[in-house]
Design a protein that fits this description.
Elements lengths: L5 E4 L9 H16 L3 E4 L11 H13 L23 H13 L3 E4 L3 H13 L15 H9 L5 E4 L6 E6 L3 E6 L7 E3 L7 H11 L4 E5 L3 H13 L6 E5 L2 E2 L8 H4 L3 H7 L3 H9 L12 H7 L10 E2 L2 H14 L2 H12 L7 H8 L6 H10 L8 H7 L2 H15 L6 H15 L4 H12 L7 H25 L1
Parallel strand pairs: 1-2, 8-9, 10-11
Antiparallel strand pairs: 3-4, 4-7, 5-6
Helix pairs in contact: 1-11, 6-7, 13-15, 17-18, 17-19, 17-20, 18-20, 19-20
């Protein structure tokens, strides 16, 4: 590439970042770093009714948490500042005036009520919704008189009625559309706010954006923005449209999954490197050995992105997080777990982490298991029925006696005590292990019993065994 690569992530601060738009940020980031380019964070806050400062702050916080640093943005500035669209209105006005003067745009006085009625008529006739061009060719005198009277209006682009618009998509290859299938789209709303299509195109020109990677759902916007680039006499950036993300059933994401925020996943107990590696695989065959952003960037090639929809794969994400927990060092696990434990920092944390490292899928699950270890179990009716069998009581009584007579206590002593209880009572398998696990943990599944008892210690192990026996007698 001869020109320096300049890409942008341009979210609207109208809600938290979710997997879909964050994946777009990630691919732009990887592309920029792969080619030694510039990664720009631009805030598209022209929707004044929905944009909020708290969501803009959350955009910064989310990208920082994911370790995606930027080169130009509202908070750090840059050669093409400002980077917040609400501060760039004069640029959009200049572009619109230029297009109106050249006959490429015009004011539209149609009311919302008229446009709604037009859509109803088109739907009834089974026609696609499309502006009918009523204001497209108004006499100049009438147009000026209505403007002078202050009549509310939008600004529409005058889309040519004939021909095609074609471009080479970095992901999909050649894409073209007949201009007759595009209507005269709105560039400026009736309240004066620039629309997404106009502002994005003007900013891409002025900020010298070379490549745009974004979701496939923006494909129709690209057709319209290419017309704006053409009208303003500017070469367009190269566009690449990322495949849609679908559910594991191959169907469009439900609202619950589609709105799944990055910080929702963080709060469930996923670490940044697991999330970025997973998102990188949503439409790209990222190398399995790539463990961080630098390694992903070194391998990233936009031409290898997939065209078909990418499955969200939440079970795969959880599996990857569980693998991280197992492979992390004790210090890494302890540091990542700290926000989930809060002020609760139980004694013997390293031992507890080792005990449950194979059991937990996320950091939150790990923290819950560690915290639950401090709470003696209660037993429901089915569990009490199991504890009340003669075999269960014999196992627990024998185990208590064996531990009481042991000079020391550790995992090896507990292993020997369990073996002795099994030999004395002739219990084995579930008959031997289930009453012990219920007594110690209140569950029929969990970590290795001898290690669990060692973490609890002799006193607490005996207390829980005796408590289970008392509950069985009750």
């Amino acid at each position: 590439m001869t020109d320096p690569v300049r890409v942008r992530f341009a979210p609207s601060p109208t809600g938290p970042l979710h997997i879909g738009n964050t994946r777009a940020a990630l691919f732009n980031y990887l592309f920029a770093r792969r080619h030694g380019g510039v990664f720009i964070l631009r805030i598209e806050d022209t929707d004044t009714t929905r944009s909020e400062a708290r969501y803009e702050r959350q955009i910064y916080d989310t990208l920082r948490w994911l370790k995606m640093d930027w080169d130009e943005a509202p908070d750090v500035g840059g050669p093409f500042a400002p980077y917040r669209q609400s501060e760039r209105r004069s640029y959009y006005r200049d572009a619109v005036e230029k297009m109106i003067a050249a006959g490429n745009a015009y004011p539209c006085f149609c009311t919302a009520e008229r446009l709604d009625e037009l859509k109803r008529q088109q739907a009834a006739a089974k026609l696609p919704p499309r502006y009918d061009g009523r204001c497209r060719d108004l006499p100049a005198e009438e147009r000026q008189a209505r403007l002078a009277a202050g009549e509310a209006h939008t600004i529409r682009f005058r889309t040519p009625r004939f021909g095609e618009i074609e471009f080479r998509d970095l992901v999909r290859g050649r894409v073209k559309v007949a201009l007759k299938n595009l209507d005269d789209f709105i560039m400026v709303r009736s309240n004066g706010d620039p629309g997404f299509i106009l502002a994005g195109a003007v900013d891409d020109i002025l900020m010298k954006i070379t490549h745009v990677l974004r979701g496939e759902d923006h494909l129709t916007n690209t057709h319209r923005q290419l017309l704006i680039f053409q009208a303003l006499g500017s070469p367009p950036p190269a566009f690449g449209h990322l495949p849609l993300i679908v559910g594991d059933d191959g169907k469009p994401l439900s609202k619950r999954l589609g709105d799944l925020g990055i910080f929702d996943l963080r709060d469930q107990g996923y670490v940044p490197e697991v999330l970025t590696a997973h998102m990188a695989r949503l439409g790209w065959a990222a190398p399995a050995e790539a463990r961080n952003l630098a390694e992903l960037a070194a391998a990233f090639e936009v031409e290898t992105l997939a065209k078909k929809p990418a499955r969200l794969g939440l079970p795969d994400l959880k599996h990857s997080q569980a693998r991280w927990i197992r492979r992390a060092t004790p210090d890494q696990r302890a540091a990542a777990l700290r926000p989930f434990l809060g002020d609760r920092q139980p004694a013997g944390l390293d031992d507890r982490l080792a005990l449950f490292a194979e059991e937990a899928g996320t950091l939150r699950e790990l923290a819950e298991k560690i915290a639950a270890l401090d709470v003696p179990p209660d037993f429901d009716a089915a569990e009490l029925q199991l504890l009340r069998t003669t075999g269960s009581r014999d196992v627990l009584n024998t185990l208590v006696a064996k531990i009481e007579t042991s000079a020391d206590f550790d995992a090896a002593v507990m292993t020997a005590a369990i073996a002795a209880a099994g030999e004395r009572t002739a219990a084995k398998g579930k008959q031997l292990y289930q009453p012990i696990r219920l007594a110690l943990q209140g569950d029929l599944h969990g970590p290795e019993l001898a290690q669990l008892a060692a973490v609890l210690g002799r006193g607490e192990t005996l207390t829980r065994l005796r408590r289970a026996l008392a509950a069985a007698e009750g």
